[in-house]
């Protein structure tokens, strides 16, 4: 890709990006949220048309008018936001748009057999091709997206944050698949904000900033500080900030007792004091997200209770939980947290409508003023409260969700994967914000697939395995290896 430019109304997303990918390599594409990575890979896939520049395949210029043409050329893209159809089966998703057919009729047996073969290749031969995708976890849907890419015999596979919804074992399996693909001559473009992954899987690195290529052909062993400087234009302190110890006499703000959700988790209990951060660690599917959703009232508990500052929260009632002072930033921010086509001010004020009402009617001016204050305080970019949430990068969308609950003044904040798909600069800001909220007396519960992040952010850690708590104690009293032992074995011994 040479000199790629792309304009959108009022903004230049790409301003002359170069990207050279070799057969059989893992080429890592790095940059902050909003740097232009997603736009660039959509140009490569045919989802966007470049306003200038050219794309060459095997040294010959090609035009990619749409994603179907891209697939025919052997270019497959696995987007960060999963693009599966929940109402279809695994096999129907894998071969969507290119089902094996004879005489105009679909060959279901052939589709099923080829899907089984692809799933075995991905190390998930136990996943039924007949399973409805909507019933799968986020990790399961990611596997389906990978199988779909492989079904096209792609020569170039673009993976946008592929490990974001995978646990440590599944990441190891993903890397195995990537190495098998590159050994067969397939080129893989790998996008990730987890720099430690780049070290493990990458061959070369291209860095983009503000829609321009600022470095290309870097070795995967390039020092972290240098990569961060290239991405941000400055040095970033990305370590988790230290916080003072929580006082023993601090009031208990969140008290969860014997919480059970049939089929997801059972008999989970914990308490969080004001000024304390509790981390929930566990594999994908351990019940950690479901615990947060049940505390928030998005799921109705089978048994148990939730109290905020000594007051019982009505089970299965989100309005009652919000009124009690609980806020939730969900794992899937686009599908569960944001109104993507609504402006930022409406997303921020979603939990504070009554404050912006006059005689029963919304005062949009008041909404805009309140949202603008929060957007600027959290450095959301661009700081345009009229812009639809869909138009923001992942890191800035996460900030909008946080702004919603800061505007509400929540006493209890539940954060599910708060740094997923977030660049190092925004990640440092989110770490600092969590520390600030705790310092101001909030009770914070954090779920993260990155065990180091859970341990670094938290005062105490609750480890979940197969829906039950197997350990609770100070974060300083346990390390990553012990957490992995617990979640793999499911034993508190």
Short description:
The protein is an alpha/beta fold and 493 residues long. It contains 17 helices and 24 strands.
Write the topology of this structure.
Elements: E1 2-8, E2 11-17, E3 26-30, H1 37-45, E4 52-57, E5 60-62, H2 67-72, E6 75-78, H3 90-94, E7 101-102, E8 105-106, H4 108-121, H5 138-151, E9 156-160, H6 168-183, E10 187-191, H7 195-201, E11 204-209, E12 212-219, H8 224-232, E13 252-261, E14 265-273, E15 277-281, H9 288-295, E16 303-308, E17 311-312, H10 318-324, E18 326-329, H11 333-337, H12 344-348, E19 357-358, E20 361-362, H13 364-377, H14 394-408, E21 412-416, H15 424-439, E22 443-447, H16 451-457, E23 460-465, E24 468-474, H17 480-489
Helix pairs in contact: 4-5, 13-14
GO molecular function: ATP binding
Domain ABC transporter: 1-235, 246-491
Keywords: ATP-binding, Nucleotide-binding, Repeat, Transport
Question: Could you walk me through the main structural features you see in this protein, from its secondary elements to its overall organization?
Answer:
Helix content is about 35%, strand content about 25%. It has a six-stranded mixed beta sheet with strand order 6-9-10-3-11-12, sandwiched between helices. A six-stranded mixed beta sheet has the order 18-21-22-15-23-24, with helices on both faces. It has a four-stranded antiparallel beta sheet with strand order 2-1-4-5, with helices on one face. Strand 13 (about 250-260) and strand 14 form a beta hairpin. It has 17 helices and 24 strands. The N and C termini lie far apart (about 55 Å). It is globular, with a radius of gyration of 23 Å. It has about 500 residues and is an alpha/beta fold.
């Amino acid at each position: 890709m040479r000199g790629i430019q792309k304009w959108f109304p009022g903004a230049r997303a790409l301003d002359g990006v170069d990207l050279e990918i070799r057969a059989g390599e893992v080429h890592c594409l790095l940059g902050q949220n909003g740097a232009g990575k997603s736009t660039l890979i959509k140009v490569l896939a045919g989802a966007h048309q470049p306003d200038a520049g050219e794309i060459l395949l095997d040294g010959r210029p090609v035009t990619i008018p749409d994603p179907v043409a891209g697939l025919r050329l052997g270019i497959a893209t696995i987007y960060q936001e999963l693009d599966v159809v929940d109402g279809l089966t695994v096999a129907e998703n894998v071969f969507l748009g290119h089902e094996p057919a004879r005489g105009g009729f679909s060959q279901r047996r052939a589709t099923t057999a080829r899907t089984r073969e692809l799933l075995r290749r991905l190390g998930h031969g136990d996943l039924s091709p007949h399973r409805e995708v909507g019933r799968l976890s986020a990790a399961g849907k990611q596997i389906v997206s990978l199988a779909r890419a492989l079904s096209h015999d792609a020569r170039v596979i673009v993976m946008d944050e592929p490990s974001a919804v995978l646990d440590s074992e599944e990441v190891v399996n993903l890397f195995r698949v990537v190495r098998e693909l590159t050994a067969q001559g397939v080129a893989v473009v790998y996008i990730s904000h987890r720099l430690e992954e780049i070290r493990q899987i990458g061959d070369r690195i291209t860095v983009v900033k503000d829609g321009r290529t600022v470095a290309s052909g870097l070795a995967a062993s390039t020092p972290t500080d240098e990569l961060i400087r290239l991405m941000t234009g400055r040095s970033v302190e990305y370590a988790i900030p230290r916080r003072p110890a929580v006082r023993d006499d601090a009031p208990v703000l969140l008290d969860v007792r014997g919480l059970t959700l049939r089929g997801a988790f059972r008999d989970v209990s914990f308490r969080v004091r004001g000024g304390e951060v509790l981390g929930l660690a566990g594999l994908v599917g351990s019940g950690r997200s479901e615990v947060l959703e049940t505390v928030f009232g998005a799921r109705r508990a089978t048994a148990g209770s939730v109290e905020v500052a000594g007051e019982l929260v009505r089970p299965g009632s989100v309005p009652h939980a919000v009124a009690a002072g609980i806020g939730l930033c969900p794992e899937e921010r686009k599908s569960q947290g944001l109104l993507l086509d609504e402006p930022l001010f409406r997303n921020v004020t979603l939990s504070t409508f009554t404050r912006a009402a006059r005689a029963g009617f919304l005062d949009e001016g008041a909404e805009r003023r309140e949202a603008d204050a929060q957007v600027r305080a959290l450095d959301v970019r661009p700081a345009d409260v009229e812009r639809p949430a869909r138009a923001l990068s992942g890191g800035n969308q996460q900030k909008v969700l946080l702004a919603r609950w800061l505007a509400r003044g929540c006493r209890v904040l539940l954060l599910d994967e708060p740094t997923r798909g977030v660049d190092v600069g925004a990640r440092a800001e989110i770490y600092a914000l969590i520390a600030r909220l705790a310092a101001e007396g909030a009770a914070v519960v954090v779920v993260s697939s990155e065990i180091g992040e859970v341990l670094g952010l938290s005062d105490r850690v609750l480890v979940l395995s197969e829906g039950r708590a197997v350990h609770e104690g100070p974060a300083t009293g346990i390390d990553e290896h012990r957490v992995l032992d617990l979640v793999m074995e499911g034993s508190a011994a």
